[in-house]
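Next up, a specimen:

>
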Amino acid sequence: MRAYLGYAGIGLLVLLPLSGIGSHMTYLYRILILILIWGYIYTSWALMGKYGFVSLGHGAFLGVGAYTVTLLWNSFQLTPWLGIPIALALCTVAALIIGYPCFRLRVVGHYFALVTLALGEVVRLSIIALRDYTGGSLGLTPEQMPNAGENSWYAFQFADWNIFYYMALGLWLFGLWVYRRVERSMATAALSAISEDEVAAASIGIGVTSMKLRITALSAVMTGAGGILFSLFNRYLNPETLSGIGVSLEIVFAAIVGGMYTAIGPTVGATLTIMLREYLRVLFGTHFIGAANTIYGILLILFIVFMPTGILGWVHGRFVARHSRLRESGGS
């Protein structure tokens, strides 16, 4: 039954542009595209987070991916068709550079989280320091093609938001597919064993370092791809929104709140986060700039204490408990 509902939901999403929402409700259409993009990014983080490998620096991979493609385009007019593979390769290198020494030296738990936090700050500060190329804290805008009002597949610049919508939808579905593939593979048993006890996992023949490096590199590359699509759609890059501690914590918050133990959970978190962000932007405007991060922090504490499995995990637990009570009452 759930599979049929899932296929029906995907079908509605595929057909949605035919309703003309892009022409009549531009703001809502933009929000939907952002939910798909960030839902994919949060799902990418959940690939690590669900096994206890908590990264507080995934903003680094967003920044590396987005800025690499944009800088190659602005400086050398190198099409994103070539820039994207280069950016994803750099994300992989960054993940291996930070992951290999940590995993070999068994840097785990909050120590690993602090190392990844430092990585995000290194990337952010590097972007600011290279202001002559990146625009520093003022941000960077991709150079527009001369025919800016048309669709250009060479530059990945599209006036038609339907193209971005289908790209975001495809990337989101790909993220769900990867999540389910990992969940249903033998890797999930190995990663679960590693998260419980690395020494015991190694004693039964599990390659602890290689498994952790694989899931870290996969999560980093997927996150970098999300950062690239977001920058292409948003047409503006800023170190605070793409590599700062704020966006890294927002990724953690959304994945935990939605439920990182289910494939669709991070997307639920993305929906809640983006709607909350937009509501606070309208409510406070420029009077309380840090409102979103402050409320994220408070809500994250509350969810960890009272709803550690996230919204979907809590709903599923309530449903299972209610079903069990009904079965017991029926049996008696």
In short: The chain has a mean pLDDT of 88. The domain at 25-331 is CATH 1.10.3470 (ABC transporter involved in vitamin B12 uptake, BtuC). The two ends are 28 Å apart (CA to CA). The chain has 16 helices and no strands.
